[in-house]
Design a protein that fits this description.
6 strands; about 40% helix; two-stranded antiparallel ribbon; about 190 residues
Length: about 190
Amino acid sequence: MPRPPDPRPDPRPLTGEPLSIDLLNTRWIDAEGPHDLLDLPDGLTIWLAGDPQRIAFAGSAVTADARTRDQLLQARAALDTLAASPRPPFEEAARGPLSAVLAHGRVRHLLGEEGPRSVVEVDHPSWLPAWSAAENYLHLLGERPDRIRPCANPQCVLHFYDVSKNGTRRWCSMSGCGNRAKASRHYARHGQN
């Protein structure tokens, strides 16, 4: 059976973040206005084919259908609430929605012929992307919750996980929001001459 063609290129300005942050970044704003990748006809297919997702869902029965999309939207809404305040204590209104997504899956630890291994089990394959994004967010919270950040540009809705050595990243990208901030400061100091 021939392999289906690759989806068109991902139109988002920031990709390559951890799975949970990548899901948050399926919404963005540019000069043309707000966008939502998951609202595009092939947006779910594009997202499922992205770098962290391609690895996470390889060999699974995940399909780009309405059920998978709805569950991803549920996970994204939960992550959006938590990303606004990614440090404890977490209010029930913020914890509850993510816990509801996590309730649809679990990790089973086994001892196989090759040694220990873990297997993710979900209620239905359509839950795998949403559950995986929620579980990834827990991992990031356990590692460095202070490194989960929104872009410092107040007009930007993107988030990132700061992996810089000194932990001082402020912008979703230096080529986008970072350069705009630098240019704005320059023009404020020197005028447009």
